């Protein structure tokens, strides 16, 4: 198994994030898409979608971390971690995310973009720094 910390920076807590198969990534931000972006054939008219940070709140006044209450729909997840760009990694949703009715696509990336998150059913409560994705492979 590769030493994922060679390819991942800004790690929140390496012993916990490296304890399973692969290396877990943690959520830093959740955004809502509020205005359409544009994609054209040549890229000359490429424009990002308009987004806004989804509101979060502490459950109790003394808590250190906040929670996002997400209704069914689509969001963009931002991670705490970054990639070094030294390799292409395969990123997939954690089982814990899938079992709660949410998912994101499996991706092969050299840097970490915001990832589309689909939340189904009655929604999802997501805590700041929750482990939501796993890097499962590194290709040089």
3D structure, described in words:
The protein is mostly beta strands. It has one domain: Deoxyuridine triphosphatase (dUTPase) (Deoxyuridine 5'-Triphosphate Nucleotidohydrolase, Chain A). It has 2 helices and 13 strands. The strands form 3 sheets. Strands 2, 3, 6, 8, 9, 10, 11 and 13 form an 8-stranded antiparallel beta sheet that branches. It is globular.
Mean pLDDT: 96
- Count helical runs: 2
Report the span from N to C terminus.
14 Å
CATH class: Mainly Beta
What are the key terms here?
three-stranded antiparallel β-sheet; mainly beta; eight-stranded antiparallel β-sheet; single chain; Deoxyuridine 5'-Triphosphate Nucleotidohydrolase, Chain A; 140 residues
